[in-house]
Amino acid sequence: MQVADWFSVDYSEAREKFLAAAAFAGAGLASFRNPAQGPRGETLYTDAAWLGPEDAETVLMTCSATHGIEGFCGSGAQVGTFRSGILRELPGNFALLAVHAINPHGFAWQRRVTEDNVDFNRNCIDHSGPHPRNGAYAEIHHLLVPAEWNGSSRDEADRGIENFIQTRGLAAFQAAVSGGQYDHPDGLFYGGRAPTWSNRTIHAIFERYLKTRRRVVFLDYHTGLGPSGYGELIGTHPPDSAGFARARSWFGDVTSPDDGSSSSAPIQGYIGMAMERALPRVEITAVALEYGTLPVPEVLEALRADNWLHLRGDLNSAQGVAIKNQVRAAFYVETPLWKQQVWHRAAEVTRKAARAVSGGN
Ligand SMILES: [Zn+2]
């Protein structure tokens, strides 16, 4: 089987390939049904595949589609993990927990967010406390969400954004937009005000599979930042923490959004935060594997277009189809080369992670 065959053209095909690959490897499966439906009325599920001893002390957990449409990449890597034979060369004293399509609605609808327009990887904060303020986002929210996509209000909004970038810089713009915000439910990178379905589901998965383990490595697949085909390992613990030090010693080239070494702006409410709160007795080492697609301004513009389409546009119009193609290209590079690059890096990281959780670096 060719690497490109592990990747899919839509959510339903990805789910089929994942379930078949997991069963082929002998994994046990559990499915969690999302209450919403896909664009063709499909039922939507998050699937969890467990491979290894039931009582394994150490677990490698992988996750795809945290950001919906980014699941094209993560799903392909997860299918490859089961299909490639890589598991046979790994030590036997650990378990693999592969969580497929944790945000199945975003995957099926080719959106980065969940069914309630929430960025799941900003949603994992403690919602009982005050929600973080993102003043820079508030300044530009009205520019990011123009009334019309073609017309004078869009032109005016574009000029406002250009002006923000010229005076404050592209990095400041990226941080303002992508850092996460909790005050504009119709905006971009909205973290929500309560745990979204994906958040509740991943907590059910933590409870069911991870609560009594000794150590867990969490590998979360993402796309949309960095040079095309390059897989950046981002440490999601604070740079001065034991978790970050472990990740760096195990993997080597681990970057941090908090010290400027990553292509990602600093963010809040990512899954690793929830994991540490939910599993206080488990040693957790969390990394994101972030693959590049298109330059940042193009990716952010695609998300802006998609948000406009979601709020005010028509999915079935020519404009709607064009915007969906723009979004897809921003998160999934459909070439054999890119898929090879994704798998090559995923295999390298999986080997290192498995060796590390098994206790022999
Ligand atoms: Zn992502």
CATH C-level label of the largest domain: Alpha Beta
Give the count of structural domains. Answer: 2
CATH architecture of the largest domain: 3-Layer(aba) Sandwich
CATH topology assignment of the largest domain: Aminopeptidase
Q: Give a list of the ligands.
A: zinc ion
**Overall geometric form:** globular
Record field, number of beta strands:
8
Instruction: Please outline the major beta sheet.
Output: 8 strands, mixed
Question: What is the average per-residue confidence, as pLDDT, rounded to a whole number?
Answer: 95
Using the CA coordinates, give the radius of gyration.
19 Å
Task: Give a structural overview.
By secondary structure, the chain is of the alpha/beta class. The protein has two domains: 3-127 and 195-293 and 332-357, Aminopeptidase (3-Layer(aba) Sandwich), CATH 3.40.630.10; 135-178 and 299-327, no CATH class. It has 13 helices and eight strands. The protein has helices spanning 11-25, 71-83, 104-108, 120-123, 135-144, 152-168, 170-178, 197-210, 242-251, 271-278, 296-312, 318-331, 336-357, and strands spanning 28-37, 43-51, 58-63, 95-100, 215-228, 231-235, 254-255, 283-292. The chain has an eight-stranded mixed β-sheet with strand order 1-2-4-3-5-8-6-7, with helices on both faces. α1 packs parallel to α2 (71-83), α5 (135-144) runs antiparallel to α6 and α6 (152-168) crosses α7 (170-178). It is globular. The two termini are 30 Å apart. The mean pLDDT is 95. Bound molecules: zinc ion. Residues 67, 70, 222, 224 line the site of zinc ion. Zinc ion (ZN) binds at residues 67, 70, 222, 224.
